Amino acid sequence: MRPGKTVAVVGDGAVGLLAVLAARELGAERIIAMSRHEARQKLALEFGATDIVTGRGDDGVARVKEMTGGYGAHSVIEAVGTQESMMQAIRSTRPGGHVGYVGVAHGVELPGQELFFAEVHLLGGPAPVRRFLPDLISRIENRSIDPGKVFDLTLPLDQAADGYRAMDERRAIKTLLQP
Fold first, then answer.
1. Does the pLDDT value for residue 103 go beyond 90?
2. What is the pTM for the complete model shown?
3. Residue 33 to residues 19, 80, 87: CA-CA distances in angstroms?
């Protein structure tokens, strides 16, 4: 991500929404959030998304291409970890662009020939959190960002299973557990 570029984010969970926030903080000119959930779309817009795409798979890819003059986004963040979301991310990226996948992909198989001709860069792996932590904490302390808004359900610790169920059923973005 660089200032003046278009970023698309596949996924509207906590990681995807915070990727929208990060894209804004890094100066992306256009941030396309791919989401089908109204409450999450609102938070994506609050975090800095300039556009919302509700389509998935080929429909979502077609919309991103249409919005970018047929090219695709400069950078796409894949924040789901499924076969469909990975292919949506790769296909939404312009040739020479970058796909960053966060988290561990589950059962994803990349078709070699399609990946070869997509001409995109793929990068994923554990984040170097310690490198970014001082700056992020400073931004939170001076209230220039509020990433805590992804916590939209608070439960007592002994109801942790209910919190995970609510996230799995898309009734909560992220559950905050309190003692």
1. no
2. 0.92
3. 9, 13, 16
